[in-house]
What we know:
By secondary structure, this protein is of the alpha/beta class. Helices cover 32% and strands 27% of the residues. Helix 3 (112-126) runs parallel beside helix 4 and helix 5 (167-174) crosses helix 6 (189-196).
Amino acid sequence: MKLLTITLNTSVDIAYQLDHFELNQTNRVKNVIKTAGGKGLNVTRVANILGIDHLATGIIGGTTGEFIKRDLDQDHIKHDFYETNIESRQCIAILNGAHQTELLEQGDSITQEDIQLLIQHVTELIQGHDMIAISGSALPGMNVEAYQTLIDIAVSHGKKVLLDVNGHTLKDLLNHEGQSLPYLIKPNIEELAQLFNVKDQDNHQEIINALKSPLLSQIPCVMISLGSNGALYKYQHQIYKVNIPKIKVVNAVGSGDREIKQYYEDKYL
């Protein structure tokens, strides 16, 4: 299997570790960790660890873009990005004790010309891979049509699309009648609640009823992450409860799931 990951808003993730953090004061940073980030690149890192044949693509630019390539090279992660003149963003996490404060840049706006060139670039890469993972937010200037175009291209070439995007984007994509659909989606419980007005997020039966809705019937795999309670997973017409092991967190940056981060912080930090 060959996996292509697409990150439409790459970043340099910076973690500042402090003994104490105070507003309106000078704070001394104890330790700094910088890594290439963005949800798609986090998927690529896991694929690399598991020995899956992979390639990371997406958009990068500027000095932060150069750092992203160097960091991936050091971890032996293969990549082939579309490069622009805009500067890739930075995302900062301030870690002090059991608390984590995040400062996430939105990223610079991208032109329609760059969007079309990106799609051409990715289309060529899609043809040589089996699974296409599209993850995370998009740059300003992109709308839901960019996601839909990439899904349509992948499906038209017989590829399976794994999609992990925010609730609003997912809702727009699922409501596109007659459009190609992903093979797998992974909303968290809050995003599912946005889609189906789930009132009690701790009520598994209410979540299961949402999973059985006609809106999700054409998507073979749906994973609902439940934070410390694991996940509910729908494959075709079967629904499974997934339990997760209790581990000691090393760094929650990039987890992308507030419930999981809070659970780890409460339990282990």
